[in-house]
Amino acid sequence: MCSDNPKLPKEANKAKCVAVACFVFSVFSMIGFAGGTAGIVGALCGLLACVASSILMCCAPKSAKDGGCKFTAAGVLLLIAGIIQLIMGSIVIFQIATLVNAVSESSSDCKGYSTCTVDDGANLCSDNYCFKDPDAASPARRECATKHDYDSCKGIHDFGSAIMGAAVFIMGIAAGFLFIAGTLNTIGGAYCIKAKNAIARAGHGSESLEHAHGGGGLDSTQLSQPLDLYPRIQ
Known about the structure:
Helices cover 65% and strands 4% of the residues. By secondary structure, it is mainly alpha-helical. Strands 1-2-3 form a three-stranded antiparallel β-sheet. The mean pLDDT is 83.
């Protein structure tokens, strides 16, 4: 898969090696299926990159004479997958920031509770808890609340924070692999395009060499044989 083939330009051999790294990290990037809509799109692009890199891992041209069509196909697919993965990784990071902000805002809901003996209306609070709406447009009055209300608010917040924390953790891993795979796939696509151009140059060079020797389609073995300058006696 990543061995040097002397019949191919060095650019082609390098592209084959980079394709292996693209395949490995594209597989890891499929964790994006658990990272929301953007993560799913990035994971699908990881699947596309696996297909593209597999073209070079199992079916790469054996020599420059085979042409660079497979490098062109792999390069285009890798570039498409890599660029989209980088974009999706950025979107996942934005979604993580939104989730963290939502968690911090939800934690302020329970900050309206406080211990007290009487509320602002001079009512005796049996559970020694008061609640004052922190989001009220005008200064809110403290009103008596129960300990059950406070415990329910805290329990809901703690459960939501745990779920959000797990989601942020998974999405963070997905974003990391999307960025790594996207970068590698973009670089791999560029290497494949360079390999295609190098193979094209090598192909034109071999054709020119054959015409210069009057090959007319002769292969390298025939060109290396000495010419018979003397007619054979029948």
